[in-house]
Amino acid sequence: MKNVAIIMGGYSSEYKISLKSGEVVYNHIDKSKYNTYKIHILNEGWFYVDDENNRFAIDKNDFSANINGEKVVFDVVFNAIHGTPGEDGLIQAYLKLLNIPQTSCNYYQSALTFNKRDMLSVLKPYGIKTAISYYLNQGDTILEDQIIQRVGLPCFVKPNKSGSSFGISMVKESEQLLPAIEKAYAEDDEIIIESYLKGTEVSVGVIKYQDETIVLPITEIVSENEFFDYEAKYEGKSNEITPARISEEEKAKIENVAKRIYTILKMDGFSRSEFILVGNEPFLLEMNTVPGLTAESILPQQAKEAGISLNELFENAIELALKREHF
């Protein structure tokens, strides 16, 4: 039987959500098919954690665990880390050097999609529609009038490399801009300020499933809050409707653009992209390459609607990773 390391945690504000995702993955992999190991990757260290919550240190030289005097090595890694180092390419590059297959996309795709500004820049020549944006790096002079003139009000201020809506603000009046920028800088040293797109927000899962790239049923996001923020995502302050209440024409357009983006970027594994439907044109906001896998998360909801169980979803990812060329 193959040894599967399920990595979870990470070094960002998203680590608690990742621990939940990892637990869900652990609980939905058939233990008669795979030997599964929960690996916590945290600021304080890397550990294998058993069912009694005993911790055993991971040897970073070869990504092995010494468990009660026995060295355990892993055949494949299931990546459930949101944010750094699991969604920005660091863990993918490390595992590639060790020639250990893993379930998410490659290190370059991870790094590119994690950086919202870079990803949108790469997709622009392909005609992918996006919001009007303005970029800031920490230390840049903040020209409030110039920013507002470019993106208008209301606008969104976001950390460039962060997920789960940490550090995002909606700015309606000019005096809210500076506090919003400070809030975003608390998460990242790069910021993206985007024009407000009025329309229907949808979330689209695109995955490799049984050697095919498939688009999962689309989810419509109806937030009780002003936008799909942390509360709306994780504390029940939103209504997520799968399949989305959109026309067949809109559905076809979104599916086409989501699959096209996945192909252009040479993606692998899971992805979940967020769009705003303005008129009936989809505008891309961002892509997640390690989307939430908790019971409340959108991708598992979409898979269920498509008739794919969590066991099938996770075990398919493991099998595809094992078949993939590492070099």
Structure report:
Helix 2 packs antiparallel against helix 3 (107-114). The two termini are 24 Å apart. Strand 5 (64-67) and strand 6 form a beta hairpin. By secondary structure, this protein is of the alpha+beta class. The strands form 3 sheets. Strands 6-5-4-3-2-1-7 form a 7-stranded mixed beta sheet. It has helices spanning 15-27, 90-97, 107-114, 116-123, 144-151, 177-185, 230-234, 248-264, 298-305, 310-323, and strands spanning 2-9, 34-42, 45-49, 55-59, 64-67, 70-72, 76-79, 133-137, 155-159, 169-171, 190-195, 200-209, 212-215, 219-223, 238-241, 270-278, 281-288.
Number of helices: 10
Low-confidence stretches: none
Backbone CA Rg: 20 Å
Number of E strands:
17
User: Mean pLDDT across all residues, rounded?
Assistant: 93
Instruction: Provide the structure class.
Output: alpha+beta
Helix content: 25-40%
Strand order of the largest sheet: 6-5-4-3-2-1-7
Q: Span from first to last CA?
A: 24 Å
Strand content: 25-35%
Helix/strand layout:
Layout: E1 2-9, H1 15-27, E2 34-42, E3 45-49, E4 55-59, E5 64-67, E6 70-72, E7 76-79, H2 90-97, H3 107-114, H4 116-123, E8 133-137, H5 144-151, E9 155-159, E10 169-171, H6 177-185, E11 190-195, E12 200-209, E13 212-215, E14 219-223, H7 230-234, E15 238-241, H8 248-264, E16 270-278, E17 281-288, H9 298-305, H10 310-323
Parallel strand pairs: 1-2, 1-7
Antiparallel strand pairs: 2-3, 3-4, 4-5, 5-6, 8-11, 9-10, 9-11, 12-13, 12-14, 12-16, 14-15, 16-17
Helix pairs in contact: 2-3
